[in-house]
Amino acid sequence: MKIKTQKGRSKELIKLRDKALVKRFVHLTEVKRKRVDDTLKILSEKEFYLSEKTILNIIRKEFRVKKYCGLEKRQTYGNIIK
Fold first, then answer.
1. Three-state DSSP class for residue 45
2. Model-level pTM?
3. pLDDT confidence of 2, banded at 50, 70, 90?
4. Organism's domain of life (predicted)?
5. What percent of the chain has pLDDT over 70?
6. Are 18 and 58 in contact (CB under 8 A)?
7. Model confidence at 7, in pLDDT bands (50, 70, 90)?
8. Which of 30, 31, 34, 73 has the greatest number of C-beta atoms within 10 Å?
9. What are residue 32's phi and psi, to 5 degrees?
10. How far from chain centre, in Å, is Cα 2?
């Protein structure tokens, strides 16, 4: 009997990528004061090579997890999370 192995990228690597993406998003929007649409374009085309829709989904997911766990100290990007 063959053992089924996982294909594709490691789940741990995906978690690390998602954390880095959110950190970079916050840096660009909060520190560098870039607009959200410009930030999405930068992250999509120059840094992470993912679609803007995928990036938004990752950001939403990460902020929901932080909010659910009580780790989010302030309401940031409320309109993105909805």
1. helix
2. 0.73
3. low
4. Bacteria
5. 72
6. yes
7. confident
8. 34
9. -80, -10
10. 36
